[in-house]
Design brief:
This protein has 105 residues and is an alpha+beta fold. It has 5 helices and 5 strands, in the order ββαββααβαα. The protein is globular, with a radius of gyration of 13 Å. It starts with 7 loop residues before the first strand and ends with a helix.
Length: 105
């Protein structure tokens, strides 16, 4: 795992928030992993925390009590903390991507 500076930042409703690896790891311990019965094909971005995959928005919301403004914000914050972030893609997502998740900031 890469060494990353802490804390990372994310934006929600125009307000900047911070998050740490410890907060994310604690949140992951409270959430059921996405690869359990909670999996949904309508959710594309996940972070690997320990041995569990977790949907990026749920993970940051659980960790901080604040939902990030969008999925891209969530995945970039988790990446900044050094967590592997993966995409569950099928169909057009494999060839075209999802504009709301891949567009530049």
């Amino acid at each position: 795992m890469r060494n990353k500076p802490e804390p990372a930042e994310f934006i929600s409703g125009g307000t900047r928030h911070t998050i740490t690896r410890a907060q994310v790891e604690a949140a992951a311990s409270r959430l059921p992993p996405a690869h359990s019965r909670t999996f949904s094909q309508n959710r594309e971005w996940y972070a690997l925390v320990g041995t569990g995959l977790h949907y990026v928005l749920d993970l940051i919301t659980e960790a901080t009590g604040t939902k990030p403004s969008d999925v891209k914000t969530a995945r970039l914050a988790l990446d900044a903390l050094g967590f592997p972030v993966v995409c569950w893609a099928w169909g057009d997502l494999l060839t075209d991507g999802h504009s709301g998740h891949t567009a530049s900031a």
